[in-house]
Amino acid sequence: MTGQFTAITICVFLLPNSGLLRADDLRQRLKDDNGIQTDLWVYNDIPSAMKEARRLNKPLFVTFRCVPCKDCAAFDADVANGNDRVKALAQEKFVSVRQVEMKGVDLSLFQFDHDLNWAGMFINADGVVYARYGTQSAEGSDAYNSIDGLLNTMQRVLELHAAYPNNKQELAGKHGTKPPSTALEMLGLKNPAKYAQETTRSNCIHCHNIHDAEHQHALDTGTYSPEMLWKYPLPDNIGLKIDRKSGIQVSEVIADSAVAASGIKVGEDIVRMNGQRILSIADMQWVLHHLPYSDTHVTIEGSMSGRHEVALTAGWKKHDFSWRGSMWNAPPRLQVWLPEVTGDALARLGLPKTDSALEARWINKEGAGGRQAFADGLREKDIIIAAAGEPIRMDSRQFQSYLKLNYKVGEQLPLTILRDGKKMELNITFVE
């Protein structure tokens, strides 16, 4: 993915001419149309920005942006070069960085939900993390992100920075515990030699590739579990709906949820979770992400109601992860493109209005999963109308997530298909 940049003339002073040329060359190779404000952002150079932040005693604002990805493009454009309020704050109060590739990023420091197409982190030049911003869900890539929400988080960061280092203790948990490493050093990264070459749009380590590598390493070491797919759960999972512009104010306590009996009140702010100062929904997700999937508890401090111990029962992390890019490389891999059948084409199938259908538009015969699906009888243009005897009542992404949660490599997937109007039964063996 990518991230954002720094203050006005800083690029000129921090980078030699060769550095400026390299940054401009990278912009052109990635076709980064939003990375044009070189007076505002330090481009893809976090180490130089950290030196300048240390000199000026300013916090860093680092945005990570996956330039080739369409999701979050509008929000990225607004943050990067469109919104005057963000520009003024990013330029005057922060050293701001636009990071557009993950190759050399220190993954021990810059830990966040790597399935995001846009993410922001705020840190002190000594490496202490102030906050994270950026949230995504099956509801949509920009459902949680807004200029007002970002600005609210930025203002809270400035308050923390002004009080630093006296508040260092409540920030300790915001830093990850992984040893220093980069994406190219990850043991599960596929095709590292390819990625080590000069970065282009087709040779960029996307943020979700970090999670892909984590999944692959877990598979290689026999530690993989589908539970790994329930990353960074929303506070909704424990019963808290948070106002998305505020980022910390409770807008609803969900009835019969884990939080419902706690005494947390609608309208109050979530100040801390497990002792960590909370500045955004992403900060809440960071805390929840590091809790176990099994029975556990979380300590939540409200601005009006005080501290509460909230018990969570096994399975509490479950949510719709079908939007995640890293889902596709998790096992089992069918290796078939299955877009939904829509409109008149769906009506002609004569299915009940409650049902859906998926078309085998393309079978990837270069992948083991695709070759096996073809060997087991699946053909392009086949229409899948049922799986394991149950009608298809989900979209393509949800179907893929259904496979990840319900099947393992070596098992068979019973499919009911329509081919040239005739119903057929197939059994597809998962081989990867």
CATH architecture of the domain at 10-183: 3-Layer(aba) Sandwich
Fold-level CATH name of the domain at 10-183: Glutaredoxin
What is the residue-averaged pLDDT? Answer: 93
Helix content: 25-40%
Q: What is the radius of gyration? A: 23 Å
Query: What is the 3D form?
Result: globular
Q: Number of helix segments?
A: 12
Q: What summary fits the major beta sheet?
A: 5 strands, antiparallel
- Straight-line distance between termini: 26 Å
CATH H-level superfamily of the domain at 10-183? Glutaredoxin
What is the beta-strand fraction? 15-25%
Low-confidence stretches: 1-18
* H and E string: HHEHEHHEEEHHHEEEEHEEEHEEHEEHEE
- Please write the CATH class name of the domain at 10-183: Alpha Beta
Number of strands: 18
Question: Helix/strand-derived class?
Answer: alpha+beta
